[in-house]
Amino acid sequence: MQRPSLLIAVAMLASGCYDSHRPAADAPAPPSSPARETPDAAVDLSPCGDGLCAPSGPIPEGAVCHELRNHAPDARDQPFIVNSGEALACFFYTAPWAESSALVAWQTEIDSDAMHEWRLIAEGELGARAGADGSVDSACLGSHPGARLLAGSYRGGNDVAMPAGVGVQLPPPGSRLTLEWLHLRDGTGTVPDASTVRVCTLPVAALRSVAGLTILGSEDPGVAMGLDRGKHSVSGRCTASADGPALRLHMLAPHMRRYGRRIRLSIERAGGERETVLDRRFDYEQQNVLSVTTVVRPGDTLVTTCDYEIGGSYPVSFGPSVSFEQCYLFAFTAPVGALDNPTFSMFGVLNHCFDQLAAD
């Protein structure tokens, strides 16, 4: 593994690029916590064949689906041309729904092996400089100050349908949307790609609950110097407001890179109990969204822990590019925004919660 120069690392941190291609292996179970565990705390959700992946359908009755497709900058009916290597392309849209709506399902149709991942972002006021509807920035930096991450799909990810009667809050009609595609391919020359994201919506008035995405995990600045060869764990904490509402946790989407081996989520209850919600071997080639049913009470702390096994001759840092690592757990919770605790984030978006950072 060749160590990136400081200049390249800084440039990648300013971009929104991601991931790599090596399947993960299992790692030894982590040591037990000194905190008191609930009797059914140990939950391993793999493999996805056990039915615990988020369902891929059916699309709820009455939902309207919108197709957002990779296309050439000057022609929507032509595919986007992908060069070799790693690059972000940003496609800009005006939100097409006609009333206050929520996202109830999303699907990905992959057109070429160059398509690696996508993220749908609702731009805030600071994102007003985004391109006009249908325009493309084929070398975007992935910086979205004041924006919100709505949904996404990562390497090997499944199609997703929200639980019945639940949707992810969308911005108002006419708002600015950015769909980021990460393309990653080896070899020379170019390939056409017309991969498509299908987003399906229902009016908020037709739903019983509106959820939102909150990014959990860690962007530990101490990892900027890199994790040396060997086994490591990195943890991030997120504490629910003591004055806030109880939260319903509907779905989790783990995201690490090629050195990720295991990811865990536990809840330190305000009363002293500790409950394990997720303890899962991480498979880089199958980054699925998972269904869970958990209540987070006021004052509870969610602890996300990522285990790594670093190989190669140089340390591996946290960062956006495929050359780096990440520790993210995307949590879909209701009510929307109640878990967010925005501070600095490499994403630039506001819907995340990193109370505390720690690395071994």
Describe it:
It is globular, with a radius of gyration of 20 Å. The chain is mostly beta strands. Strands 1, 4, 8, 9, 12, 13, 15, 18 and 20 form a 9-stranded mixed sheet that branches. It has 2 domains: 199 residues, Jelly Rolls; 144 residues, Sandwich (Jelly Rolls). The N terminus is likely disordered.
Briefly say what this structure is:
With 360 residues, the chain is mostly beta strands.
Derived from helix and strand composition plus strand pairing, the structural class reads mainly beta
Strand content: 35-45%
Tally of distinct domains = 2
What's the mean pLDDT score?
83
Number of strands: 21
Give the SSE map.
Layout: H1 6-14, E1 64-69, E2 80-82, E3 85-94, E4 101-109, E5 115-122, E6 136-137, E7 148-153, E8 160-161, E9 166-169, E10 176-185, E11 191-193, E12 196-203, E13 209-218, E14 230-239, E15 247-255, E16 260-268, E17 274-281, E18 290-296, E19 301-310, E20 327-334, E21 356-359
Parallel strand pairs: 9-13
Antiparallel strand pairs: 1-12, 2-11, 3-6, 3-10, 4-8, 4-9, 4-12, 5-7, 5-10, 13-20, 14-19, 14-21, 15-18, 15-20, 16-17, 16-19
